[in-house]
Design goal:
globular
């Protein structure tokens, strides 16, 4: 938690909340949550209740980025499903209230794990934490899109073609952050190696242990958070982004690279993939290295965007500069997955 509130006028915020949030009574006190690059997030405290506010960052933004309106919509649609999400209380699309669009949701008290090893839990229970993540993601990919009112939440089909084109364009359209040979190779290689499987489901887009709130004492997820990148997409792209933790250096984002999994009582990558496949009725994941290469590419593109915002002075989050510096390492990891795919390896 940090003290910075980006000069939000708390009186204007309290006035708006009194008119749009049931049961609200001010005054309010704000404190900003640390972490999170996409949209600044705040704890809103009142004498009687606590809330969470999530807003677009200020300043010039790339078209389509930081869509808090979409986040609010998907969270509201998932209420009552097997996917745990905080309740959305109100959405404000008027920039005049605090300077940008925002939404207010319920405060979920629990634990956030920034280390994918879950070092603070009982080693005997650690597999249950991994199983909880695996189960939640399988549940998300099993959501009935029509019943949830999300049939128009994205364009099903041709997911990889569209995503590769989108992130390639975002990379090339933001020259402030520089270019990278591995990234250029991924942009050239990926479109020619897209698997034939064209499945579609609701996807989170950033499913990591630090985007979940766990029960204070139990290996149970109370809320999946940070839905900015959610859409209708390919479930295997979403799952392998999550499974990328097994290849991810822990100093970039929550990752397990270099961890002795047996010593930590953490399921192996193969076992974790197999558990997801059992839950979703899949017979393994062919082209696994392609999916990993795609996800390292996509995350590298996101970090490249953060690098551009750092240079322009409107990056959200305390660790924006560190993530900007990690961009070439992510592109290199994507290049390693391309090499593995070309050698015919998978998993």
């Amino acid at each position: 938690m940090t003290g910075a509130t980006d000069d939000i006028d708390t009186r204007k915020l309290a006035d708006w909340m009194s008119r749009h949030v049931a049961g609200f009574s001010g005054p309010v006190r704000l404190s900003r949550f640390s972490g999170g690059q996409s949209n600044p997030t705040y704890r809103v405290e009142t004498p009687d209740a606590h809330y969470v506010l999530r807003r677009k960052p200020s300043g010039k933004l790339l078209k389509g980025a930081h869509a808090v309106e979409r986040e609010a919509r998907v969270r509201a649609a998932l209420a009552g499903t097997d996917v745990p999400v905080p309740a959305i209380l109100a959405l404000c699309e008027d920039d005049d209230v605090i300077g940008s669009a925002f939404y207010v949701m319920e405060m979920v008290e629990g634990r956030v794990f920034w280390d994918a090893r879950f070092p603070d839990v009982d080693p005997a229970e650690r597999p249950q934490y991994f199983d909880a993540m695996n189960r939640a993601l399988a549940a998300l990919h099993s959501v009935d899109i029509e019943a949830a009112g999300l049939a128009d939440y994205g364009r099903p089909g041709n997911f990889f073609e569209r995503q590769i084109a989108r992130w390639s364009k975002q990379y090339t359209d933001d020259p402030d952050a520089g270019q990278d040979a591995n990234m250029d190779r991924l942009i050239a290689w990926l479109p020619d190696h897209i698997p034939a499987d064209d499945s579609a489901s609701l996807v989170h887009g950033d499913f990591r242990c630090d985007n979940m709130i766990f029960h204070p004492d139990e290996p149970r997820i109370l809320a999946v958070i940070d839905w900015e990148l959610s859409t209708l997409g390919h479930p295997l792209a979403d799952f392998t982004y999550h499974a990328m933790m097994y290849r991810m250096p822990p100093d970039i984002v929550a990752g397990l690279a270099g961890t002795e999994l047996v010593d930590w009582n953490i399921p192996s990558e193969d076992d974790y993939v197999a558990a997801y496949c059992r839950r979703t009725g899949r017979d393994g994941i062919p082209d696994y290295d392609f999916y990993l290469a795609f996800n390292f590419f996509r995350l590298a593109a996101i970090f490249h965007g953060i690098a551009g915002r750092v240079l322009r002075g409107n990056a959200a989050g305390e660790d924006a500069a560190a993530r900007a510096r990690a961009f070439p390492r992510l592109a290199a990891l994507g290049g390693e997955c391309v090499e593995a795919a070309m050698r015919g390896r998978s998993g």
